User: Which sequence fits this backbone?
């Protein structure tokens, strides 16, 4: 029989998860997972109270999740894991638009809206009207007609609709389709920087590290077109004070957009808004498969 | 501002969790955790669907936990992490009794019972009556009077009381106190080998690895005495077919006990049971602080 010790245990556990694992990929994942998990425990010589604290932390993280809150994605985000997975799977240097993390607040099924529609379903006094326009092309600059562009963002009060019981459903969310020239346009409010939720285990972790919880202001986009790789990304607000200390490590220089102040009365009239307003022009380049 | 890439991300995340972390121990834990977590993701080049599968797995593991089920301890156990923590904190080679994992089924507050009491609160036909006796001493063999010895185990149907709605509360659990000679005695049923719960995420993980879920039959003990380190351990049943493939890697040769068949009618009468019965003699040695 086996007598398990610090010296032989990791090897024995890896054997147990290799001997009969049908999928070679699962075998690879088990082996690396066990190696690093045991490596962590051995490197820090984890004590029993620390182990129990970790068990409670993970349990509470799972219990904090519901249909509107995904604390494990937030944990992955705040430990830089989500961004690492993104960076591995979408290496920098392509000519398409760079990607970044999905975040915990995407909700599938946002309503389809016509070109230029306003995604605000209520008007907060502090919100600044913002017009966003641009084109979706392939990596060669060829217009992609009929591409879909899903947008979601925080309100001026710092909350996504799903965090805010007083927000109308689908507030600041919508799905747009590009026209024959690959163009899209939408009206919204200028995004603000905001803290990730700190009332759960992840908030306590950030506290323990003396880290602030803020993310630089951004719009989320998920862009899809037939024959192209889907793109999940943000556009960040140039000048935001948290651009160099994003709580979830998701910033990229190429994703910073200039939100300018526009007084174009004719354009404002075309979109049914009042000048002056905030104005972002941002194009997306998708990679053909 | 930061432009995060596969190459710089891990270092930047470690910096973010080091710069303002007040506790040196927390800093050490964050650094090792981030290093190994990122190392795992990079080693296997984790894909986005795999990342999402991991998020769902961890979320479901948390959601499976309640006041009677601890799926994260089970996950830690089945990945050998609990045993590694135990081995690190209680290195082999001492002269006291060796320790092993707590497991997910300990319930604090078991009733205090007198010397020789029967912890069975119902009688299953398949259960074999078992008398357990022994002494609790310090590492020098000096009797420890007034030591407490908490015992818990599965029933002959393979379930702990908290897994079995039909089981009486505290079935096969109790706390005993040693007499002036350090002796304890209790009546129970002979433990059987049983599968860890497989109706949750951990069961699916074991399936993916083609691992059986069985643990060799054992009694759990938590032994405490003033001035000594508490001891958490098992006594395994010699001859059990799963001794060399414990689902949670918790076996140690020194913890295997001989459950013999006894026909001692006088002893049986003393404990109010019928001969023949199963008989275990096992002494525990605690380490003085």
Assistant:
């Amino acid at each position: 029989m086996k007598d398990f010790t610090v010296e032989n245990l990791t090897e024995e556990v890896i054997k147990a998860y290799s001997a009969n694992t049908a999928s070679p990929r699962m075998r690879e994942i088990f082996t690396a997972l066990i190696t690093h998990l045991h490596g962590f425990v051995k490197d820090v010589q984890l004590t029993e109270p620390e182990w129990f604290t970790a068990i409670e932390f993970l349990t509470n993280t799972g219990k904090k999740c519901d249909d509107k809150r995904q604390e494990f994605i937030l944990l992955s985000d705040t430990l830089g894991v989500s961004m690492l997975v993104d960076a591995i799977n979408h290496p920098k240097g392509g000519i398409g638009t760079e990607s970044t993390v999905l975040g915990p607040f995407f909700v599938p099924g946002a309503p389809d809206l016509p070109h230029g529609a306003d995604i605000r379903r209520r008007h907060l006094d502090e919100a600044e009207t913002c017009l966003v326009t641009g084109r979706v092309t392939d990596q060669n600059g060829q217009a992609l007609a009929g591409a879909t562009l899903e947008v979601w963002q925080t309100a001026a009060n710092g909350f996504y609709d799903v965090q805010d019981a007083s927000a109308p459903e689908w507030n600041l969310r919508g799905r747009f389709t590009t026209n024959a020239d690959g163009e899209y346009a939408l009206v919204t409010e200028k995004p603000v920087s905001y803290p990730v939720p700190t009332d759960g285990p992840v908030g306590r972790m950030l506290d323990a590290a003396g880290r602030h919880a803020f993310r630089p202001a951004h719009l989320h986009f998920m862009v899809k077109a037939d024959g192209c790789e889907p793109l999940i990304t943000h556009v960040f607000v140039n000048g935001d004070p948290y651009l160099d200390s994003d709580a979830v490590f998701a910033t990229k220089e190429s994703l910073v957009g200039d939100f300018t102040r526009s007084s174009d009365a004719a354009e404002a009239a075309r979109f049914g808004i009042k000048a002056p307003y905030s104005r972002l022009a941002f194009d997306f380049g998708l990679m053909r498969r």
The first helix of chain B runs from residue 9 to 16. Chain B has two domains: 1-46, 75-286.
